[in-house]
Amino acid sequence: MVGEMLQYTNRLKEIVGCNCPDQVKNVRLANLMTDLESAYGIPATRDEQFEKQKPFVMQLYRAVSEARSI
Question: Which of these, 29, 38, 45, 53, has the minimum number of CB atoms within 10 Å of its CB?
């Protein structure tokens, strides 16, 4: 899981640091969120038990969400 998380973190850094229009960044960030949801089974609604079980996943997921400019 650590290797996967590092790949997702690096992907986030690359998207945030790219010199592309915000619209493109937002699409790429949304795709990253979808990939995280699929890979880790992130629930559609807030689930405190899930968040306690996978705090690093949720921290990254929130960072991706906050990086979007909607």
Answer: 45
